[in-house]
Amino acid sequence: MPPRRTRQRHTPKPRPKLPYTERNMWLFGLGLATIALGYIFLSLPPVDGFMSLTLAPLLLVLGYCVFIPIALLSRQKEEEPSTDVR
Q1: Which of 12, 47, 72, 85 has its Cα between 20 and 30 A from that of 25?
Q2: CA 48 → CA 8, 40, 45, distances in Å?
Q3: Residue of 65, 58, 23 whose CA lies nearest to 39
Q4: CB within 8 A of 39, min separation 6: which ones?
Q5: Chain centroid, CA 39 distance in Å
């Protein structure tokens, strides 16, 4: 009969911290609000009016192509240790 293996205890690995800060969350929320407002303006009558033909697409592009990518890609600058040698 083969020797019985003892169970090894695994120590949990620390979860990596996400690089997103409160600023990122505000930008993401602003992007979602801009997209929602764009869809609301898109649904308003008249169909050939300023809000549904001009303002709504601008808000949608602004939300999808500006705010959301900035929220996902921006990082807070890390302080570099000074190497000031006198």
Answers
A1: 12
A2: 69, 15, 8
A3: 58
A4: 56, 60
A5: 20
